[in-house]
């Protein structure tokens, strides 16, 4: 019999759900944060690539600078440019942004409950043991629909 910790990679890291996983609003918020961070990551890449070209169009560079430079300036204060021209601070900026993005992806993560198998309402089949609360909720819905359909058929 396999435990839920072996199936769920987030459970191995002891992440706790910040947002309950059975709410549509929580999933919309979590996905919105994740999408925003991915778009911001893309804008940072575009901004940094455009710095390699001295004749970049100001209509593109100016809005990107307004959006990206405040975040990058935080790390420019930590890691000054080497030799006056080589700026390595975006590497640290990307590492921090990726850590925040990974944390945002774990917001709706849900750890299994710590109830014993005798307290579970689901089937005794090994595949239905160690379910999360959301999975148990769906299993109860499915089993109640099956029993209702069987009663109607008689």
UniProtKB/TrEMBL annotation:
GO terms for biological process: chloroplast fission. One of its GO terms (cellular component) is membrane. It comes from the Eukaryota. InterPro entries: CCB3/YggT. This is YlmG-like protein 2, chloroplastic-like.
